[in-house]
Amino acid sequence: MEPSGTITVYSSTGNQGQGHDTCLSEIIASRLGLPIDRIHVIRGDTLLTPYGFGTGSSRSSVVLMNAALLAAEKLRSRLLEIASRYLQTPPDRLELSDEKIFIRDDPNISVGLLDAVRIACRDPHLLPEGEKPGLEVTGYFVNPNIDDLPDDKGRFNRYSSYAYAAVLAIVDVDVETGFVKPRKYYAVHDCGNMINPQIVETQYYGGAVQGFGAAMYEEIKYDDEGQLLTSTLMDYKLPTVNEAPDIYLDHLVTPSPFSPLGTKGAGETGILGVPPALASAIEDALSDFGVEIRSTPYTPEKILGLIQEAKKRSGIQP
C-alpha cells in the first residue's frame, strides 16, 4: 500500500483475457474498504513479480485469488494494529470501511485510512511496538487435498477441486450431405463461488464457442508428403458468431471446501463439454443408422462417410 492510499498488486500469474486484474482488484478492495480504481495490478514482469507457473488449469481462481485474499487480510490486520494504538482500542473491536477505521461500538471514534497509512510510511515512531515501517505484505496459498506422490499405479491428483457442468446439445443433421448444424446448447455450470459472475458467464460462452470449433472444424491436415495443409486461418477454420448456436447457461454454486474463497476453476467446463455433447446428439439423430462417432472434427465428409459405412453394415444400399 502506497502513502497515497493506492495499492499495487504484484501477481505471479499472467493473464490471457480472463479478467484477472478485475478479480484481484475486487477481492482486495472489498477487504480494505477501498474503491476498485485504487487498486493497480502488475503482472508478467519477472523483475518485479513473484515466480509463478502461468495461468493454466484454472490455477488463478483456485490459487492466485486466494493468495490475494490472504494478502489483503494481512494488510487489513496491519492497518487495524496501527489504528489500535492511535484509538487506544484492541484491533478486534475495530472495523475498516469507507476509507476509515472506527470502533465497532462507537463509529464516531475513528481514524482515516490515509492517516494510518501515513503513520506506517512516515511516522514509524507511532507504530505499535515491534511493527515494521511500510505496508508491504505477501500472501501465499498452497492447495490442500493434493497428492504430491503417485500411487502404486503412477497416478496422483494435482488439483484440489473440480468444476463440473451438465450439458445438452440440439443439432440438425442432413443425411444426404452429412452437414451438421448445432441449433441450441444448454449448460448448467458449477465453479463454486464466483468472484465476478459476469466474467464467469462470458468466459463460459467463449469456451463453449472454442469447443464448437474443436468439435466441428479444427483439424491439422498433412498431405502424403508430410506437408502441412492447414498452416493459416484461411485453411484452419474457426467458428464465428454465425456458426455458434444459441447458448443457454445457468449456474449452481457449491463452494469448494478447500479454499477461503470457495472457488473452483471456471475455464475448462465451457470447452470440454461441447465435443461429447455434440457427438451424442449426432449419434441420436442418426440412431436409425447406428452411427458411432469416435473422433473430431465432425465434418460433413466424415459424417457422410459414417452414414454410408453404417448403411453397408446393415445391408442398406447407399
Provide the spatial order of strands within the biggest beta sheet.
3-4-5
Report the biggest beta sheet as strand number plus sense, adding barrel if it closes. 3 strands, antiparallel
- What CATH architecture of the largest domain would you give? 2-Layer Sandwich
Contiguous runs where pLDDT drops below 50 for at least 5 residues: none
Q: Please give the CATH class of the largest domain.
A: Alpha Beta
The CATH topology of the largest domain: Aldehyde Oxidoreductase, domain 4
User: Helicity range of the residues?
Assistant: 25-40%
Number of strands: 8
Strand percentage, roughly?
Answer: 15-25%
What sequence of helices (H) and strands (E) makes up the elements?
EHEHEEEHEEHEHHH
Helix- and strand-based class?
alpha/beta
Distance between the termini: 73 Å
Care to describe what's here?
- It is built from seven helices and eight strands.
- With 318 residues, the chain is an alpha/beta fold.
- The protein has two domains: 7-126, Aldehyde oxidase/xanthine dehydrogenase, molybdopterin binding domain (Aldehyde Oxidoreductase, domain 4, 2-Layer Sandwich), CATH 3.30.365.10; 164-314, Aldehyde oxidase/xanthine dehydrogenase, molybdopterin binding domain (Aldehyde Oxidoreductase, domain 4, 2-Layer Sandwich), CATH 3.30.365.
- A three-stranded antiparallel β-sheet has the order 3-4-5. A three-stranded mixed β-sheet has the order 6-7-8. A two-stranded parallel sheet has the order 1-2.
- Strand 3 and strand 4 form a beta hairpin.
- Helix 1 runs parallel beside helix 2 (59-87) and helix 4 (197-216) packs across helix 6 (274-285).
- The mean pLDDT is 91.
